[in-house]
Amino acid sequence: MKLEEMPAKELLDLHNRIADKPAGPKTFATRAKLVARIEQVAADKNIDLASFGQPKKPKATAPRAEPKAEATEAPDAAEKKPRGLGVGALARAILMDPAGFPHALVADMVNAQIDGAAATAKSVRWYANDMRKKGVEVPPRQKHHPVDMDEEQSAEALSTVRVVEPAPSDD
Are 14 and 55 in contact (CB under 8 A)? Predict the structure, then answer.
């Protein structure tokens, strides 16, 4: 083992293993002083530095009586469960509806369509805000759903409705 070729960190580690008093990284002013101190301690304690600190060869392990179990594959990889319930995707789709349903109504619609969903108006607002951050133009929301409106609000909302003639049928 050539001490001059070893990194300073390994030299310090070697010193601390053979010396009575451990040293810190700032104990020795130069690398040469550290090497000299290691050689002095090794000479005082009759330590052979050539064999000291060499990595020991690992012992061979006895073969197992039973072979290791073969790696098992997942049963039918095609039957993977979906990552989530699809609440976010459904909420985003409903938010893009030009009708502009209120967030509370969108949450109720999601919860009605997906078993186990627990969407709230707040979570639907988060989806809308996330879409806006990503550059998607989300249609504006209605302040109130027509079911929740009083007479004035209902009359105001209906004033914007246009009656469209039905298309002629091909009967």
Answer: no
Handedness of CA 58, 63, 64, 67 (dihedral sign): positive
What is the distance of C-alpha 61 from the center of its chain?
39
pLDDT at position 124 is: 93
For residue 129 the two structure tokens come to 């805000």
- Please identify every stretch of the chain with a pLDDT value under 70, giving residue numbers as ranges: 1, 51-85, 143-149, 157, 160-167, 169-171
DSSP state of 114: S
Per residue in 14-35, pLDDT (tens digit) is: 888 888 888 888 888 888 888 8
Q: Is the pTM of this model over 0.70?
A: no
What Å distances lie between residue 114 and 84, 86, 109, CA to CA?
A: 11, 8, 9
* pLDDT value at residue 20: 86
* CB contact at 8 A, 38 and 49: yes
Between CA 20 and CA 42 the distance in angstroms is 11
Report which DSSP code applies to 10: H
Q: Which two tokens stand for residue 29?
A: 């002013």
| Helices assigned H by DSSP within the chain | 8-18, 31-44, 87-95, 103-113, 121-133, 151-158
